[in-house]
Amino acid sequence: MKRAWILALLGLMGSGAAEAGAVRYEVEGKPFEGYYLAGADKQAPLVVLVHDWDGLNGYEIKRAEMLVALGYSVFAVDLFGAGVRPSTVEDKKRLTGALYQDLALINISEPTRL
Questions:
Q1: Which residues, listed in sequence order, are joined to residue 32 by a DSSP beta bridge?
Q2: Distance between terminal CA atoms of the chain?
Q3: Segment 75-111, tens digit of pLDDT
């Protein structure tokens, strides 16, 4: 997963794409949709924002906007899949539990070689 969203983000940044918006990418054939906001300065440091068990929603986008106001660019990664936004505690537990069962998929503790 890590490599897929890093490649999606690098492609977005390198293409001169929009300053804000959805970033679509695939991991093992499954669609995901992150969100990117560019800082005012093209050299702004990048913050990778990871959502909680609610999935990527308005809360993370608001936090991304706050970070941009502080001078950062922000990529909010999607860990559940495009359009997957759990609303019940059971769904949140199920989706988060699936991530815990495959920690290698979301491991960001080791450097990625592109």
A1: 25
A2: 13
A3: 999 988 898 999 999 998 998 888 888 777 666 555 4
Does the reported pTM lie above 0.85?
Answer: no
Among residues 15, 34, 16, the alpha carbon closest in space to that of 74 is found at 34
Residue ranges of alpha helices (H) inside the chain are 2-14, 58-69, 89-101, 103-106
Query: Is-contact 66 53, C-beta < 8 A?
Result: no
- As a whole number of angstroms, the distance between CA 34 and CA 24 comes to 6
Token digits for 113?
A: 């070689």
Strand 20-27 versus strand 73-77 pairing type: unpaired
Tell me the C-alpha distance between 7 and 29, whole Å.
Answer: 15
